[in-house]
Design goal:
heterodimer; A: 5-stranded mixed beta sheet; 12 helices; 11% strand; elongated; B: mainly alpha; 9 helices; 69% helix; globular
């Protein structure tokens, strides 16, 4: 079967041949038994399929989908909110957003303030951080619920963080911070997730292996391009990608592009071996590159 | 530009301006066809519903990025096919596929579902047996009645590739179905 014959059959069945062209094509098919046999098989399958009724959703399925979409798209709010409605990824990350904000507060204090802490100031700062974490947990509890709640929690977090920043006691020190707050320091919030156009994964991986400061410096070079990667895909990748399974902890550290392909950069911290980075296709979650030793 | 295409563009603009009714109108205009594509690509009804919802989530969230050079439906069906590919890949990764509960013959709902969508299980099974790329070509052209050019735009491949995939897909389907007598006359082929 030549390409020309294949083309002829396709045009006869699905193309827009003129009457003259059609007559000529049919004559050509009729004159060649092998071609005629192929044509008849193709026609039979095409006919069978075209006669298959189109499937439809039931009324209940339709209604359920509309309701779910309206909730997820936040359609009862402003159009801007609808377009920017939190995706599954953002909802997935909601519980850690507050922790990241809390960590930022702690880190800010560590960097800016001198030593000589006092117990009173520590209690104040920890109380502020705790309330932030609680807001985050409440937000997380509503993961399956409305986006309004998430927005509200975001606002609350912002307020809490701002209050803590303004009222910090300068005597608060790193030694006073709790493990819980420090553990959250490495988790980026979805809003702040860096995007690195044309990432050099090896370079980023080297920085990652060198330590947190070097890695942060590398991420600081990232672009401010807002969210070119679907957050839902990014979140799904952690669940779907086989990478890192039983190999330790996974964290999404950035979005990026490699040769024009949107990727999610995930850090993998194995229990024993050195940590490494993996770039997953943001749409398929397939591993495109890695710095795995 | 077709009337439907112009209407879709107007609806997208209205949606972006905050008109929620535009969302309803776009859904009504396209949801059955998107669901049809997803069901025929995925075979499993629940997964098709999930995929359909993901398609519209993607489309409405990215509505501001829709380039009006192409028909909205072309963009929508491209998102549909790509979403189905993603879901199929994820399903494949899980390797051990449990039989969906609703296809269990002991499930009283199973009969209702087949009645509701009027699918022929033998065709669905045969479709599931060919590669997703071949299936997409058959679904768009033979089941959804799309033109070769339209399918090429939707799949973002040359028309020749669509023809080739269609040819191979039908050949495989004929072998799978096994009961297609040679000499079958296609009604559309009558002069």
């Amino acid at each position: 079967m030549s390409d020309h014959d294949l083309d002829l059959i396709a045009e006869l069945i699905n193309g827009n041949l003129s009457p003259d062209e059609r007559r000529a094509a049919l004559a050509r098919v009729a004159a060649d038994p092998e071609l005629r046999s192929e044509y008849e098989t193709q026609v039979a399958v095409a006919s069978l399929l075209s006669e298959t009724p189109a499937p439809t959703m039931t009324a209940a399925e339709r209604s359920e989908m509309h309701t779910s979409l309206r909730q997820q798209l936040n359609l009862d709010d402003s159009p801007a909110a609808a377009v920017a409605a939190p995706s599954r990824w953002q909802r997935w990350w909601a519980p850690v957003t507050g922790l990241a904000a809390a960590a930022a507060v702690i880190i800010g204090v560590v960097i800016v303030l001198p030593d000589n802490g006092s117990d009173d100031s520590l209690q104040f700062a920890v109380a502020e951080v705790t309330s932030t974490i609680e807001a985050s947990r409440n937000d997380g509890a509503d993961v399956a619920g409305s986006a309004d709640a998430a927005d509200g929690a975001d606002e609350e977090r912002t307020t809490t963080t701002a209050a803590a920043s303004e009222e910090f006691d300068p005597t608060f020190t790193a030694e006073d911070s709790t493990d819980a707050t420090l553990e959250s320091a490495g988790e980026p919030s979805p809003e702040a997730l860096p995007h690195i156009p044309d990432v050099d994964l090896n370079e980023l991986g080297l920085a990652y292996a060198e330590g947190e400061d070097e890695f942060e410096d590398e991420l600081d070079k990232s672009s401010t391009v807002p969210d070119p990667v679907p957050r839902s895909a990014a979140g799904v990748c952690l669940d779907e990608a086989g990478v890192g399974e039983n190999e330790g902890s996974l964290t999404i550290v950035a979005t990026a592009t490699i040769d024009g392909v949107d990727v999610v950069v995930v850090s993998v911290t194995p229990p024993v071996e050195d940590p490494y980075l993996v770039a997953l296709d943001a749409y398929t979650c397939e591993e495109l590159a890695t710095t795995r030793p | 530009m077709t009337a439907r295409s112009a209407e879709d563009r107007a609806l997208i603009r209205r949606y972006l301006e905050g008109d929620v009714e535009a969302f309803d109108e776009l859904m009504r205009a396209h949801e059955d066809r998107v669901f049809g594509i997803c069901l025929r690509m995925m075979k499993d009804r629940d997964q098709a519903l999930d995929a359909t919802q993901d398609v519209f989530l993607t489309v409405f969230r990215k509505a501001d990025r829709y380039k009006e050079q192409a028909a909205f439906s072309t963009w929508l069906y491209r998102v549909s096919i790509n979403t189905c590919y993603d879901h199929l890949r994820r399903r494949q990764r899980k390797r051990t596929e449990a039989i969906p509960e609703h296809l269990d013959p002991s499930d009283p709902r199973s009969g209702d579902i087949f009645n509701a969508v009027e699918l022929r299980p033998d065709i669905e099974t045969a479709l599931a047996g060919i590669s997703p790329e071949f299936r997409a070509a058959v679904v768009l052209v033979d089941l959804e009645g799309m033109s070769l050019d339209g399918a090429a735009d939707t799949l973002d491949v040359p028309v020749g590739t669509v023809k080739s995939r269609l040819f191979r897909a039908r050949k495989q389907l004929a072998q799978e179905l096994g009961n297609l007598a040679p000499g079958f006359e296609h009604p559309r082929e009558e002069p």
